[in-house]
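Appendix C reproduces, verbatim, an entry submitted by the partner laboratory led by Prof. M.T., so that reviewers can inspect both the input and the predicted structure.
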Amino acid sequence: YFNTYVYADCPCHGFGFTVCPNCHAAQAEWDAKSKQYDKWLEERKDKVERTAFLKDPEKRNVQYIEGEFFYVSGTIRACDVMEGNKRIKMTAGERAALYIKRCDSMYRDRFYKTVNTTDHKPKAKFNVTLWSKVADCLDAAQRLAGARQAGLSTGGTVITVEDSSGDQEVYKMVIHGSGHMILYEYSDYVAGGVPDWFLEAYSHWMEYQIFGEVTMNCAAEGGAGGLTGRSLENQIKMIIKNPRMPNIMDFCNWEMSKLDPQMRLVSFGLVDWMIKGLGGKKLDLFLVVFKRTKSVAQSFRDAYGIKLTDVMEEWKKWVIENY
C-alpha cells in the first residue's frame, strides 16, 4: 500500500526496490510503480483535501496512507503515544501508520468476531481524517461529513477528527466514529439502516473492549447526556433491579438525541448480550433484517426468535448469570 510519508523519506519510496544507477535495472518497473502512485495520490487528493477545502487545498500539506480496510489522512501531529504502559514519542508518519494498524485491527480482530465472519470486505475503504487545526477540522467536517463541528464528525465512509488533544482521546474518537462507519457499510448502505440505540451502543461497546471505559459520545447526544464510565457491568446489575428501568420497547425507534444515559446504558448491555450471549451469526442476521425492514421487532424475531416484548426479560436473565 502507498504512503506519502514513506514516499518522501525513503529512497525506494515504499515501492520495495530501487533502480540500479549503473545499469538502470528495474527502470520500467519503477516507472510503472511511479505512475500507480501518482494516480493513487491524485485520487486521494480529490477525495479529501480538494473536497474539504475550496481555497488553496494544497497549502495544508495533507498526507495520506493506505491500509487493508482504511485510509488515514490529514495534518497529523507528531506527539507522545501510549503503547501499553510505555509512552513513546512518534513522528507524524509513525502515528499515521499506527492509526492504520489500530483501525485495521479493530475491523479484522474485533468487528469480524462480532458478526462471525472472516472474509467480509467493505465495498470501499473507510476514510479516517485527522486535522491538527480546529479551523481545518471544521471545514473538513462540513464538506466531508456534512456537519460543521470540531471533535468527531461521521458521514458514510468518512470521519473527521480534531487532532489537537492527547493521542488517547483522538484514538477513542477514531474508534467511536469507525464503529459507526462499519455498521453503515455492513450489508450495504441503507438510509436509516441501523437503529440509533444500536449504532451508538456498538461504538460504546468497541471503546469499552479496547479501553475498559466509555468516554466518547456523538455530538447529537448533547441534549440528553451521554454514557460514560468504567465497570459498566456493575452499573447494569444495579439498573436491572430498578422497576423503572428503560425498556427497549419504548426507545427502540428514538433518535439518538433523545436517548438519556440510562437508555444508553441499557443499549450497551443489550449489545453486549447480542454479541457475547447470542452470537455473531445471529447479530449478522439482525443487521441484515433491519436494513431490509427497519423494524427492531422483526429483526429480533427473525434473528433470535425472541419477541420484542420478551427481550428485556431474556437479557436480564443473561446479565444475572454472566455479570
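The beta strands are 63-66, 70-75, 79-83, 86-90, 126-131, 152-155, 158-162. Additional entries are available on request from the coordinating office.
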